[in-house]
Amino acid sequence: MSEVPHLYVALSGHGFGHLAQVAPVLNALCQRCPTVRLTVQSVLPEPILRGRIAGAFTVVSGAADFGMLMVDALEVKAEDSLAAYRAFHGEWAARLSWQESVLQQAKPDLLLADIPYLSLAAAARLEIPALALCSLNWADILQAYCATAPDLAVLRESMLAAYNSAVAFLQPAPSMPMPNIRNGQSIGPIAALGRNRRAEIERRLGLRDGQRLVLMGLGGVNLRPPLEMWPTLPDICWLIPPDWGQVMRPDVRSWDVLPDYPMLDLVRSCDVLLTKPGYGAFVEAACSGIRVLYVGRDDWPEEPWLSRWLSEHGNAVKINRQQLATGDLAEPLRMLLAQPLKPPVAPTGVMEAVDWLERLLN
Predict the structure, then answer these.
(1) Which residues, 6+ apart, have CB-to-CB distance to 130 below 8 Å?
(2) Could you report the per-residue pLDDT of 122-152, keeping only the tens digit for each?
(3) 93: helix, coil or strand?
(4) What is the mean pLDDT of the chain?
(5) pLDDT tens digits, residue range 54-87?
(6) Torsion from C-alpha of 103, 108, 113, 118, nearest 10 degrees
(7) How far apart are CA 26 and CA 32, in angstroms?
(8) Please, what are the domains in the chain?
């Protein structure tokens, strides 16, 4: 191993939840071991990566997985995804050769994957120690949607072999069950925490005394409700993403007027986060002590485990897509705001994952 340990991170580009899991671990690792050199392979935009991962790191733009193809933030294209997996595995030898060449050029001491199995397979062939980290895996997600596919077992074989080749597959709470992962290790929840800047935000937005701020974050795949048609709810101000465009209502504000406020600060400073089921959103909210109003995503295999954990450890109310479309949210919000606020959850999985990385790097 080199005097300056080199960690290579293979990061899925399927939404921002994988980055939300990895970034706090990398930031804590670099604080504990400031000599660590980082390389991050992902198709996520580099400004997004640098907005969450602190310090210096090299970016390699390359896709080692694609997750599932999506209609929007809630709906999966199951048949298209199955076809894409067949194409991906039809080119397996060439893709594996490409990933091996990238790793050979980087010469890392350790690979961390969340959760591209191609990268894990390449690391195993090159005898590079590897660690997997995620609350799900693509083999089980694919099985949930395509259980009757005649070639499912063949597709899953190489996926599971890659996942099981890692030294360990760290599964942060809340994780879905992974019965075919033999090297699984349960750890605590992982989340980054922002700063509570509510007083500043109220001044910038001109909020009235007693007005509730609902932050709308429905994930990396666009799902914009028809806000122009929503009823006005007393004492509610909606804070929406800039790419949703201008909405000519006094109770709707875009967070483009808060350009110097990271998303984590907005989450920590709102009264309610309106979102979809996802590891990053749910765990960051629970660890920040923020209430969650979430749109059901009943076919997503991870949802039952995410929702159950959030109900046990945080404050949450579930709505359906019809309520999101019509803005029929007065009663769900009343129920949510009436719940006694539970104390923030400690993101203990961050340092547990750092302990694993430090042991393997040293």
Answers:
(1) 110, 111, 112, 113, 119, 120, 123, 124, 165, 166, 167
(2) 999 999 999 999 999 999 999 999 999 999 9
(3) helix
(4) 94
(5) 999 999 998 888 878 776 667 788 899 999 999 9
(6) 20
(7) 10
(8) 6-190+348-361 (3.40.50.2000), 198-338 (3.40.50.2000)
